[in-house]
Amino acid sequence: MRYIGIDIAAETHVLAIVSDEGTTLRKPSSFEESEAGYKRLWEWISSPEDALVAMEATGHYWQNLFAALTARGFAVTLLNPVRTHHFAQESIRRAKTDALDALNIARFAQQKRLAPTKLSDEATLELRELVRFRDRLVQEQGDQQRHLHRIVDLTFPEFTRHVRDLSTPLATTLLAAYPTARLLSGASVSAVAAMVYDGRHTVGTALATSLIEVAKVSVGAHHSPAYQLQARCACEDLTTLRARIKALESDIGNTLDRHEVGKLLTTIPGIGRTTSARLIAELGELDRFHSADAVAAFVGVVPRVNHSGKRTPSRGALASMGHASLRAKLWMPVLVAVRLNPWLKAFYGRLVAAGKPTKAALIASMHKLLLAVYSVAKNRRPFVPHLPTPSGATP
Fold first, then answer.
1. CATH for 199
2. Is the separation of the CB atoms in 11 and 1 below 8 Å?
3. Please, what sign has the CA dihedral across residues 26, 28, 29, 33?
4. With b meaning 16 or more CB within 10 Å and e meaning fewer, what string describes 347-366?
5. Is residue 119 part of a domain?
């Protein structure tokens, strides 16, 4: 058996090969991320028989190489860089180079006898790209909203007392036309009241009158073209981002309809289409987890037990490892689920009644929700809650 370790980089990868006994069959050699580089790779590794390729999942740089290797029939395993880093520390290695990393990856695969990684299906990969693209757009939307808030604080601070959310079509329509208090103070009530902000609704006389009156006595001291330009650009960007996010959510929904497990997850109260798509995107094929507890450990909603000697604390903090961004995104769905999902609501209520802190009960509910996600995905069946029988009732 040949174990082929590849250290992934943006433009040039490094390969090393070791035998079943750990003997180096090919010293670390580099090849480029190009047609010529791949030709060198095929010459070095030849047949896929009796070969396992191991590489770290570094950013997105591994994806083209993974696809090329699997297309030629090679078994490929993707590694968590944390595991290979700790493996390198076992040898007390004092140097770090791409060549040494490639050899370390090959030896790690040889000693651990790793199983090949199964690439997710097309719908799962598409959901992953769409969900992460949506996250980037939402982040940009938040950045533009914060920037607009700064400009409004300087030009017309009283505006947010009448229009609370600056990301709404109402706010961006008004501020694009009248970005400063001085400009709005000279406008006519009828003109502002007739403005259409979402294709259907108008600003209205009451709000237009209130805004113009307060604009006349505003304490905003900045009205120069520089501030007007920033406000108008931020409003334009927010309008564009709103439309893109709406269209993207439609694409996510259409893709989710082609995903069997994704559609089934929406049968769990509290998990909508966006959350279902996120779970599929970040967890991938749930069949790769050997148990529901493994899913919870991957996300990081398990306690970190730290008992040693006489030190036996009654409570354990949340594990620091895990998918922190997914945990953060699941927080709001859990808050919804403990109100709308009778099964999870009962579980959460029992924990709170037993004296558990609210946050600890919510984290336990997130763990419980992930168990339901795994069960639905594994059994390929809609969610059916098993509510406890009320005391004294006949089952």
1. 1.10.287.4070
2. no
3. positive
4. bbeebeeeeeeeeebbbbbb
5. no
Q: Which of helix, strand or coil describes residue 259?
A: coil
Return the SS3 of 48: coil
Q: What residue type is 48 in one-letter code?
A: P
Spatial CA neighbour of 283 closest among 272, 270, 271, 296 = 296
- Answer for the pair 17, 5: CB distance below 8 angstroms, yes or no: yes
Measured distance CA(286)–CA(298) in Å, rounded: 11
CA 294 from chain centre, in angstroms, equals 19
Tens digit of each residue's pLDDT (9 = 90 or more) over 291-346: 999 999 999 888 765 556 666 655 656 666 788 899 999 999 999 999 988 889 99
The average pLDDT across 43-67 equals: 92
C-alpha torsion 60→57→259→253, nearest 10: -40
Residue 40 is encoded by which pair of tokens? Answer: 């060198």
pLDDT at 13: 95
Residues 61 and 8 in one domain: yes
Question: Distance (Å, rounded) from C-alpha 44 to C-alpha 26?
Answer: 8
In a domain, 97, yes or no: yes
pTM: 0.81
At residue 92, the pLDDT reads 65
CA distance 37 to 32: 4
Mean pLDDT of 145-170: 96
Evaluate whether 99 touches 105 at the Cβ level (below 8 Å): no
Q: Are residues 100 and 154 in the same domain?
A: no
Identify the band that residue 392 occupies on the pLDDT scale cut at 50, 70 and 90. very low
- Asked whether 6 and 51 are in contact (CB, 8 A), the reply is no
Helix (H) or strand (E) holding 335: helix 324-340
Hey, what amino acid is at 36?
A: A
**Tokens 């902000």 identify what position?**
197
What pLDDT is recorded for position 216? 96
Q: Six-digit token pair at 391?
A: 């005391």
Q: How many domains does the chain have?
A: 3
Residue 119 has pLDDT above 80, yes or no: no
> What's at 115, amino acid-wise?
A
For 202, which DSSP code? B
Looking at the domain assignment, is residue 117 inside a domain? no
What single letter denotes the amino acid at residue 42? W
Within a domain: 37 = yes
Mean pLDDT, rounded, for 356-383: 92
Q: Map tokens 């030009």 to a residue.
A: 155
pLDDT at residue 390 tops 70 = no
Q: Which two tokens stand for residue 235?
A: 């409003």
- Residue 208's domain comprises 126-253
